[in-house]
Amino acid sequence: MKRVYNFSAGPSMLPLSVLQKAADEMLCYGESGMSVMEMSHRSKHYDVIIKEAEALLREIMNIPVNYKVLFLQGGASTQFAAVPMNLMTKNGKADYILSGQFSTKAYKQAQKYGDVVVAASSKDDNFSKIPETTRESFRPDADYVHICFNNTIYGTKYNYIPDTGDIPLVADMSSCIISEPVDVSKFGLIYAGAQKNMAPAGLTLVIVREDLIGSCMDITPEMLNYKLMADADSMYNTPPCYCIYIAKLVYEWIKELGGLEEMKKLNEKKAALLYDYLDSQDYYIAPVSKESRSMMNVTFVTGNEELDKKFPAEAAKAGLENLKGHRSVGGMRASIYNAMPYEGVEALVEFMKKFAAENPKA
Ligand SMILES: *Cc1c(COP(=O)(O)O)cnc(C)c1O
Questions:
Q1: What total number of domains does the chain contain?
Q2: 299 neighbors 157 (Cβ within 8 angstroms)
Q3: Neighbours of 340 (CB within 10 A)
Q4: d(CA 223, CA 68)
Q5: How many angstroms is it from 190 CA to the middle of ligand 1?
Q6: How many angstroms separate the most distant Cα atoms in the chain?
Q7: Of 152, 224, 299, 327, which is best to mutate to test ligand 1, by the most ligand atoms within 8 angstroms of its C-beta?
Q8: Is 120 helix (H, G, I), strand (E, B) or coil?
């Protein structure tokens, strides 16, 4: 068996030890005599799994007791509609910061449900940085402010938490969840598709302050109603059982590693290796403003279309997969989530040096 270094933006790498544990338990989980995939979600064994998953996540993220943790389906994209349906119900208004494609999609969906405006945008800078905001950027009667904390496609991330005063802050953290500590109490709601940094595709995490749920719009489908989901402990219907089980193994892995402080140190070290190299030469260009650089998704270009095409193809031959940038941006993108080992980034930098030496620009 030969495993590659997989730089995919999502679904993406999972820690090897997690995959091994899942493989060990594949045919028979504990004393159950069956696979977790085959188990009733109402069974004794599964009850322990989902409760442990929630307890571990609460522990590693230090989630305050007045927040609900929901394990849902539908991907982050479903939350683009669920958030306004559940939260835009006091004044029917919400303010969005546009920092890339996903926040723009979220904004467009929310427009169907109320009075939604753009509070700030970095579109004119090709989303190469995070917009700056002050409290005055937001309407005082907005029901919430929505941001995308890490922009997977462009490779940018907030290096500050916008000051929204009393207005609840909602953050899409799909591509940076559990990569470093965050102060959950600064947010009204955090959501994330699991397939970037947490588990296989199929699970969506929502962490929401209790006082924000319970007054959704009448048109809200039951499956998108946070109150129903919270009251049923994410078991209103069949939850994504196996994904939650893998998420639990990932949370255990982080805890054993020393928690999110330690995870952050490892991620910083990986990102620094790549950015320091990018800053030390002029063959590759990193298009993102330095102060907005993502620790998870690193974008770069050669400035030459042919070479941008050749790079990911050659890299794949060297065991470095999925380095092609998003189709809307071009160039290259290395997603270096929690599960990417330091050695993978070292191998990438070595390959970049070799490629630059072997492919001089005309
Ligand atoms: C991938 C991604 C999404 C879309 O997630 P789905 O689970 O595919 O709906 C939304 N927001 C961000 C920041 C992402 O990285």
A1: 2
A2: no
A3: 22
A4: 16
A5: 13
A6: 66
A7: 152
A8: strand
Give the Cα-Cα-Cα angle 315, 316, 318 (nearest 5 degrees): 65
Distance CA 130, CA 132 (A): 6
What is the residue-wise DSSP string for 221-283? -GGG-HHHHHHTTT-SS---HHHHHHHHHHHHHHHHHTHHHHHHHHHHHHHHHHHHHHHT-SS
Q: Are 176 and 314 part of one and the same domain?
A: no
Q: Which long-range contacts (CB under 8 A, 24 or more apart) does 305-314 make?
A: 305/330, 307/359, 307/361, 308/332, 310/359, 311/355, 314/351, 314/355
Can you give the residue range of the structural domain that contains 230? Answer: 16-257
pLDDT digits (tens, 9 = 90+) for 76-99: 999 999 999 999 999 999 999 999
Q: Which atom of ligand 1 is nearest to the CA of 148?
A: 13
Separation of alpha carbons 190 and 179, rounded Å: 14
pLDDT, tens only, 7-34: 999 999 999 999 999 999 999 999 999 9
For the Cβ of 102 lying below 6 angstroms from any atom of ligand 1, the answer is yes
Decide if pLDDT at 362 tops 90: no
Do 171 and 210 lie in one domain? The reply is yes
Domain co-membership, 117 together with 24: yes
Helix axes 342-358, 305-317, angle to 10 degrees: 130
The pLDDT-based confidence of 2 (bands split at 50, 70, 90) is confident
* Average pLDDT value for residue range 295-307: 97
Q: Clarify whether residues 295 and 314 are in a common domain.
A: yes
Q: Per the domain annotation, does 6 fall within a domain?
A: no
List the structure tokens of 99: 């920092």
* 148 CB within 6 A, ligand 1: yes
Q: Quick one: which atom of ligand 1 is closest to the CA of 150?
A: 13
Bridge-based pairing state of the strands 189-193 and 169-172? parallel
Q: What is the number of alpha carbons within 13 Å of residue 122 lying toward its C-beta?
A: 23
Instruction: Note the residue count of the chain.
Output: 362
Report pTM.
Answer: 0.98
